[in-house]
Amino acid sequence: MEALLLYSLKANVVLALFAAAYYALLRHLTFFKLNRAYLLFAVAFAAVYPLLPMPALLPAGAAALPLAASRGAAAGPAGPAAAPALGGWQVAGAVYLAGAAGLLLRLLGQLLSLAWVRRRAHPATVLGQAVRVVPGTGGPFSFGRTIFLTSSALADAASLPAALRHEQAHVRQGHTLDVLLLQLATALAWPNPAAWLLRRAALDNLEYLADQAALQAGTLPRRDYQYLLLRQQAGGVPAPALAFQFSFSTLKNRILMLNQPHSSARQLGRYLLAAPLVVLLALGYTGARAQTAAVAAAASAWPANALYYLDGVPSDQTAVRELKPAAIGSVDVIKDAAAVRRIFGSDTAPGVVLVTTKANAQAPAVLALTKRLNASYPTLGITKAMATIPDYTYAPTHVYVLVPKALAYITSHYPDARLSGTVTELKHKTTGEVKYQVQLIKGKRPFDVFFSPQGDFLGE
């Protein structure tokens, strides 16, 4: 559940960035096809962005460890403290899933409503176009490759050609696919206002595209086409919300865009700014959020009476909290009471949090403390198993190269083991194939597991 909510959080932040860029830079431009491409890219990128191995795309050290390395036994006073947080994740996840399920059920109901309208309509050919005629009043509408005309729309001979061209544009340009994608995206991102704003913007833009096509067909002058919009009636036939149909909520925007001067070629540069800017902000957000999470986990998951070491010397929780995330090089946690007593001489501290900044990674105090830890945990470092793989070259790397899929596998399949913090990249000398060796510790026994760069488990 926690992984689902983290995925949703990242996707929704990206949606918000895309929405902000669209409303600030692109909304009033008349490049409707480019706006359509931008909005579809926004939804697609937000969906795949949380699945990308983002920390590996950032410079080394740009993201802190997503999982605090734990040395020593997992049992201890701090163990039960995680239960309330897990319950919070579960409650939030249940609320989110309930809302998404409700909107998906509504989408199913809209599709069934459309099937009902289609069933009661009869086929006909109007001005050379195959349509389905629905008894009742209201304007024309379309869905998929089908155009629906009400009896009242069919009787309006003066407006019929332009209205038909408008619906033909929806069908010809495949706008229904956009609508379905936007409905799904809104259902899955329903708590995020940006998702609803992007959907509204995309639906309006599809109407602008259809209006533009109808005017280019030359069936009516621009002024007469606007009067046609004003004469149309909403309501009447209960057309499904998924279908393209007349709506007073979009009428004002459509008329404004019909009178909007054509955007100049110079304004195309806004597209070169909007999407790359959002992508860069998303990358920066990932790194900053991962670092902040690591600091918060180290500083708040433990009580104030835990021992804190900053750059190899005794410190406190306040000093750790005040660190800038970008300054942190590593965060280690020791929870084994025996180790705390043996190494740090404390019988009362529930654990030890060790924070090292990038600037002081080689400071004498840090090296001295590392030497003490290695004396107690001699298994740290490159294991002997590495030397038995002659076809591979290897190099130590950081825990943050592991994608969430690999970390989730470790959590679910090795619940009694801890991540030591030792990760090694193996690269085949001939094929260039890359895999990662991750050292886990169960009790005091170290062992290694292997993962692909995509997070697939390869074996022990």
TrEMBL record:
Keyword terms of this UniProt record: Membrane, Transmembrane, Transmembrane helix
Tree of life domain: Bacteria
InterPro entries, A to Z: Beta-lactam_resp_regulator (IPR052173), Peptidase_M56 (IPR008756), Plug_dom_sf (IPR037066)
Keyword Protease: no
Ranges where the Peptidase M56 domain occurs: 163-258
Transmembrane among keywords: yes
Segments crossing the lipid bilayer: 6-25, 37-58, 94-117, 268-288
Classification via PANTHER family: POSSIBLE SENSOR-TRANSDUCER PROTEIN BLAR, SLR0241 PROTEIN
Official protein name in the record: Peptidase M56 domain-containing protein
Species of provenance: Hymenobacter polaris
